[in-house]
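Working notes for the structural subgroup meeting. M.R. asked for a predicted model of this chain before we commit to crystallization trials. I am recording the input and output together here so anyone reviewing the notebook later can reproduce the run.

Input as submitted:
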Amino acid sequence: MDADAIVAGLYTEEARHDPNPWYAKLHELGPASALDPEARVYTTVANGFDAVDEVLRDPRFIKVLGPVDKLDHPVLATLSRSMMFSLEPDHGRMRRLFNKIFTPRRVAALESDLLAAIDGLLDRMAELGAGGAEVDFIAEFGYQFPTKVIGLLLELPESDLAWFRERAQRIDRYLDLGGKSAEKLRAADDAVLELTDYYLRLIADRRADPGTDLVSDLVALIDSGDDRLSDTELVANLVVLLNASFVTTMNLLGNGLLPLLARPDLVDRVRADADFASRCVEEILRYDSPVQLLSRVAADDTELAGVPVPKDGAIMVLLGAANRDPRKHTDPDTFDPDRADVGHLSFGGGGYFCLGAALSRLEGRLAFPRLLQRFPDLAIARDPVRSDGLLLRGYGVIPVTTGGRGAA
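Returned structure, recorded in token form:
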């Protein structure tokens, strides 16, 4: 099977359930392969760990959001103004501003609030699971926890939080592999317009009555004159922050629950050892990455792992495949937090390395021990249901039973 046929397989429902067999076939061909540009938008696929790492870090490969003829659509126009999709010097200008506000100290200071949020959600799960009733882990914890974290960072009313999920999902469905239908574009446009209106009002409120939240600090820094960022750019970055933070963390939690519960020996160690819980988070990110793919474009004629890449050629960058590259990891399809090298590329690399990586890691490190300590008999009740995306890979539903001791 050639690379074109394998990549075509990634667009199927079967691959959305489990893309790893397709990744393994690509690895057999090499770390990167040329594709027929007549068949799809990509000229190259990068799947090997070193090749993907090179694409992410090398300035020869740049970010381009989408077709030029669609950039006037609200979803693409907004995302193109964010640091995630901007080129230099705009990317660095925005990144430096957020780095001043979104600091390791700020993330660490959230720990007590995160633990309180976790305990409140576990109380709710205990109530719902009383008497052996099924509880949807995704709906009641996986989604709720990172959403509450966004609420804490932005000091949003609790009543507003449920409003965000559906709008973020509309954007993600459009950005997903094979998701560029006119219907999904309209839905994403509407979602971005609604989010833009919300954030503009939030910025105005924080400018008039500052708090201690992320937006208040960003607005104060911008208005001081030391850092240049328009309200439109700030909105764009808040839209991306919403999607990147809660959807990916939700997938981290869901993707990690199943391999952990399949290994009771690991569960016992996670409960007792915070350092081991951190290793488990890293292995979850490697084993079943919440973000499976990215795109880059060659700035000039070049090559990648010996494969010619033409100027303006689009590269499918498969993070999920890189994380299971047998050249990098021994027995890559086995979930093993004790492996010597738990290295992964799930947060990207280079100048676009995920701004919220430390927060996502903290959320996972706190959530899994607390969950497994509270519910010693936590079990999967029936087959989970995967979400229908590949760009963002996770579960839509994970039915669990909490067990008598935790629910008491």
